[in-house]
Amino acid sequence: MNHWTRPSGLDRTQSLRVEERVAQEWSAAAVLMVDPHGNLAAERGRPRLLTQRGSQLPEDILLGWFGGRPWFVRPVTAVDGEAVGWRDLDPADSDPLAAAVALTRWHATGPLCERCGESTQPDLMGARRICPRCGTLAFPRIDPCIIVAITDPDDRLLLARQGPWPEGRFSVIAGFIEAGESAEQACHREASEEVGVTIGALRYVSSQPWPMPRSLMLGFEARAEDGRIRVDGDEIVEGAYHTRSELAAAVESGSVRLPGRLSIARHLIERWLSPR
Ligand SMILES: [Zn+2]
């Protein structure tokens, strides 16, 4: 079961009385620490929480309620001790961790007011920012991306390697959605540009946040019209269709390394490996 297709464990419900509620529950709050690059303070595979909370600081960002208590993130310039990425921690904590990384990174960019250019300030405990000069509100930006598992008419899966990746690391095709483009159009375009594939049938599967720094991955499955590939040699340097047994053998021998277990890329690959 895919974690991201179930209701979030993080209750983001905001109300006008949220500050009052936080003041009452601050003594039980969980406070994460995240640096501007999105590294979390951790301890043996779990997020490390501030034990000495002290008073609530103006820069503390409210994530919401999780496990019956309020969760915050306190942005730090550098994590002291064990520092890990959000996806390296226990998946059970994914909901507050993804929010903590996304919000910390957004606030760290110190966005200017889009109307008058003044520096904005955190507002509503970090849920948004506000311009002190003209009052314009700013909300966290999310960049939508598509990721698409393409199979050929013989149900072989296309895996490709991007230029900067090390030898042996392969995944499915992905890319940003351009302005004025639908997610489906982005799938057709990326398949055509990167691997010269014409997609016939296309189906949405599920999505996943990817706050590195601010993406939302929209996962699709597609059937190519034929088994031909033409890698662009630029973004993609290597690509091939695999049968299930070929991929199993390649993974076994180490010539193909699959994306991490918690990634949507892996989820799409696993769906193909074990069709229902
Ligand atoms: Zn302004």
Present the secondary structure layout.
Blueprint: H1 18-25, E1 30-34, E2 40-43, E3 46-47, E4 61-66, E5 69-75, E6 83-84, H2 94-108, E7 121-123, E8 128-130, E9 137-138, E10 143-151, E11 157-162, E12 173-176, H3 183-195, E13 199-210, E14 215-224, E15 236-242, H4 244-253, H5 264-273
Please tally the β strands and state the result: 15
> The CATH topology of the largest domain is what?
Nucleoside Triphosphate Pyrophosphohydrolase
Kindly state the percentage of residues in helix: 10-25%
CATH architecture classification name of the largest domain: Alpha-Beta Complex
Cα radius of gyration in angstroms: 21 Å
What does the largest sheet look like?
4 strands, mixed
The CATH superfamily of the largest domain appears as: Nucleoside Triphosphate Pyrophosphohydrolase
Gap between N and C termini, in Å? 13 Å
Unique bound compounds: zinc ion
- Average pLDDT, all residues: 93
Which strand-content bin applies to the residues?
25-35%
CATH domain class of the largest domain: Alpha Beta
Q: Main sheet: which strands, in order across?
A: 12-10-14-13
Low-confidence stretches: none
- Helix count? 5
The helix/strand series, from N terminus to C terminus, equals HEEEEEEHEEEEEEHEEEHH
Shape: elongated
What's the structural domain tally? 2
Question: Which class best fits the helix and strand makeup?
Answer: alpha+beta
